[in-house]
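re: ur question from earlier - yeah i can do the single chain one, its not a big deal. heres the input i used so u can compare w yours
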Amino acid sequence: TTTKAAAAANSSSEEASIIEDITARESQKTAQQKAQDKSTCEQYVQNGLKRDVTVQFLYERLLQLGCRPPDDLIRCVDCGTKPVAGGFGVVEEIDSTTAAQNNAVSSSACAQTQQEINTLIAKQNDGKAKLKLLPDIFLCQQNIQNETHARESMAHELIHAIDMCRTKMDPINNCIHMACTEIRAENLAGECHWVRELQRGRLGTNFVGHGAECVKRRAIRSVKANPNCAEKAAEYVDAAFDRCFKDTFPFDRHPNLR
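and the output i got, formated as tokens:
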């Protein structure tokens, strides 16, 4: 228990430091530099869709499953101080009177903030709204480091899109569903390859089993972003881990082993 508490404290401290760095970096950027971030990100997206075999395979598999995404499925947006590379889905109320407002959010140049998401979920928990998750992939233009990073992020979010297409996944309300799709995305998109972990300074001497540890760590962080799941995020990931870590759909085997 003490070890888990210390790890959680270290993770919170690390995230706070990352947010502080992003805030400082973004505050110094001119409008022209921010526009350049967006242009570069959009070029990465186009290159990924045209040249990257994994991104192309996942996109085509989504079509084969019968889910035709909108032309602007993958967008580059300003994520503010969110310490993430991207995300999947726009949370909206199932209410025709709010449709115009929600459409404005989904087409916005900025990502939905955590506060906006928390407010909507709290509204549902109070019985004042019902929510749904709209398919939408965004990359955080200020946090994408290079083209490889962009392609890994695209693959990650496309796996979420495939999971949403092939199942009745409800990651807003079902924390096991959310844990499972996060485990699969972290495992299959290449973000936990040993080279990536070495670059993060995470590999150390523990080479054997690093992939599973990385997937679990990153999945817990993602599940914590859902206020419905945050308190027991590690438990949900543990419960889903064995089955979902082995699930390589739509690949016939893990992409790193091909």
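The first strand starts at residue 74 and ends at 77. not sure if urs matches, ping me
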